[in-house]
Design a protein that fits this description.
The chain is of the alpha+beta class. The chain has a single domain, classed as Histidine-containing Protein, Chain: A (2-Layer Sandwich), CATH 3.30.1340. The chain is 35% helix and 26% strand. It contains three helices and four strands; from the N terminus they run E-H-E-E-H-E-H. It has a four-stranded antiparallel sheet. InterPro entries: HPr, HPr-like, HPr-like_sf, PTS_HPr_His_P_site, PTS_HPr_Ser_P_site. Keywords: Cytoplasm, Phosphotransferase system. Belongs to the HPr family.
Length: 89
């Protein structure tokens, strides 16, 4: 199991487009992924679950990944957060 602390840094937070991008990325992997924020824990592969976090800009999020490709998943998700979900391009 791998856990990473991430910060939502894009201007609009985990809105529909950013969430869809995250879920699409995760769907390519076998590992389970969980996001934890504001006292809630949700399946990161679920658009509705991630949207329920209502994680705006600056929100601290913990990513928990478990499975055979967990290292790649954690790295890819961290990179997506670092790139601000590609919203600056």
């Amino acid at each position: 199991m791998i856990e990473r602390e991430l910060t939502v840094s894009n201007r609009l937070g985990l809105h529909a487009r950013a969430t869809a991008k995250l879920v699409q990325l995760l769907s390519a992997y076998k590992s389970s992924a969980t996001l934890i924020a504001k006292g809630r824990e949700v399946n990161a592969k679920s658009i509705m679950g991630v949207m329920l976090l209502a994680a705006g800009q600056g929100t601290q999020v913990k990513l928990r990944v478990e499975g055979e490709d967990e290292g790649n998943v954690a790295d890819e998700v961290a990179a997506l957060f670092d790139r601000r979900f590609d919203e600056d391009t």
